[in-house]
Amino acid sequence: MTPTDLLARFNGPQTFGNGRAFWAAAGLVLGLAVLYPLIADSFNVANTAYFGVWTFMALGLSVIWGYGGLLSFGQTAFFGLAGYAYGVIAINLGDAHGYPILALLAALTIASAFALILGYFMIYGGIGGVFVGIVTLSVTLAFATFMNQTAGPQWHIGRARLNGYNGMTRIPSLAIVDFAGNKLKIDGPAFYYLILALMVIIYLGLRVLLNSRFGNVLVAIRENPERTELLGYDIRRYQLGAFVIGGFLAGLSGALYAAWGNFIVPASMALPAAAMPIIWVAVGGRQDLTATLIGTLVVLYVFQALTVISQEYALVVIGAVLLVTILFAPGGYVIGIANLLRGGRRGLIGMRTGPVDARLGAETTNE
Amino acid sequence: MSRLLEVKALTKRFGGVTAIDCLDFALEERELHCLIGPNGAGKSTFFKLVTGRIRPSSGTIVFRGRDITRLSSARRVQAGMSIKMQVPGIFPNLPVQQNIATALQRRLDRAAVRAESDRLLTFVGLEQQRHRLAGELAHGQKQWLEIAMAVGLSPALLFLDEPTAGLSPEETRHTGEMVLELNRQGMTVLVVEHDMAFVRQIARMVTVLHFGRTFARGTIDEIIAHEGVQEIYLGKAQDA
Asked: Using an 8 Å Cβ cutoff, are B175 and B145 in contact?
């Protein structure tokens, strides 16, 4: 495969920006992001890395919901599971010998396996449409409620205290060892660059995946599951594949979050937290990876700025933003603005792919 | 000619209603066969049974020498069936080109998909529409797009359920020419239809269903001349 072939795979019908101008702008943004730690103070670098941590969960939801048409309301279940799994394993192994990397990989395996099992029973059990949201949300809330009551000293796994409502603390940061066997902690700018590298790899990887046959079939299932099956595709396999990818990415966010903040709490899975990924993805434009990425970072930034004023107030504003999005830009603002800039007649109202009755979640109810 | 599809003693009951009643049916390779019958004769149920949308109460369906009675729709399609549903089954928010590509990519690589979709879109007369969203097409064009998608699977058996539903007489005639051309190229086609003008245009062999059984089977001329068929279409058989 020549480099040109490889580059061609990043582009296709399932992603919005495919032209030279788009890639030039993307390169510029990446360049600025690489230089950012040189000009910003350490708080802002850590804070930006924190925003980056959440984007994996958002991209995963975009795959499941925006591309696959299954509205999962329970991405924070995988987030929390991986966060706690990373915490338990990293606390028990300690942070020498690069063990936190092992803990990270184990946490991702656990989250993916859980997504595989939950997704299998849901998708092969014939649960569709709005019920996917109900089942996934129920699982998340059950998990959060369970973790909330693990306050006593009897709730521990090895040396790791689960600690109920207050959450698990003193979770080791990521660390590797150099050739001399010295421990190198991944925090500060190193963590920032790790997150940035992961964002680039995962964003590009998902672009290749979604512009491949897999992505075409996934979108076809969203548009018309029966027709897709009658073209000879086993649609449940594709949906399960998307669900596991989404669970893996939410798990990546969760484990990295636990490593970044050295703690994980049940509230990171509960209802307000579970609704957040849906808002990020819907506001930016769930049917496109780039729109999801931009939308997530913008909403996170705005939400944090508002939280400084008042947390309750911030939730109300973000809720209102979601409502306005559903009513006036069901395809998401990033997509809407991009259409306006192109002079597209569909403007803010249109989805990337069409004029659409596809209001928020409309495709999840027509099964 | 060899036998492509054989349905034996097929029965489907819905509660107390027997929609398909111990039906035997066979289709030879390269045949162009029409299945007709008045409303409620069991045409749609038969279609759903053979395409795997529902399971029979009893009986077997053999396709290309293989018992497919228990296979899912997707597996039947993989075995060489292709189905065009009555209500246009397309991807309305995707461009025409991508609708076709999704059908073709299961058996062809990227370059071949492009060439084959050009050929198919030209065949159904949609080559000018390739970049439009499928949902923006006129009703007849949607029907043709779906025929192109179904043909794109390169099936051993093309199954068309009322392909002319909602079409004008002109569009119906055009659809008939497409079906005849496909059959000339060697494709076996089974059409479920109640538009008799269309059936006269395309069919050589016709099977008439009535109350879930084979009422008559023969060439189109024999069927038209058949008194009993005229009666069930006019309702006399039920009144008597």
From this structure: no
Separation CA A184–CA A166 (nearest Å): 29
**Residue of B93, B107, B109, B149 best to disrupt the A interface, most CBs of A under 10 A:** B93
Q: Choose the closest CB to B153 out of A220, A223, A232.
A: A232
Q: b or e along A31-56 (b: 16 or more beta carbons within 10 Å of the residue's beta carbon)?
A: eebeebbeeeeeeebbbbbbbbbbbb
Q: Which of A213, A229, A351 has the CB atom closest to B74's CB atom?
A: A229
Identify residues of A whose CB sits under 8 angstroms from chain B CBs: 13, 213, 216-217, 219-220, 223-224, 226-235, 351, 353-356, 358
Rounded Cα distance between B225 and B74, Å, is 40
pLDDT by position in tens, chain A (length 367): 566 777 788 888 888 888 888 899 999 999 999 999 999 998 999 999 999 999 999 999 999 999 999 999 999 999 999 999 999 998 888 787 888 889 999 999 999 999 999 999 999 998 888 899 999 999 999 999 998 888 888 888 888 788 878 888 888 888 888 887 777 888 888 999 999 999 999 999 999 999 999 999 999 999 999 899 999 999 999 999 999 999 999 999 999 999 999 999 998 898 888 889 999 999 988 999 999 999 999 999 988 988 888 888 888 888 888 888 888 888 888 888 887 777 654 444 444 443 333 333 333 333 3
If one looks up domain B3-80+155-239 in CATH, what number appears? 3.40.50.300
Yes or no, beta carbons of B133 and A353 under 8 Å apart: yes
Domain boundaries of chain A, sorted by first residue:
41-269
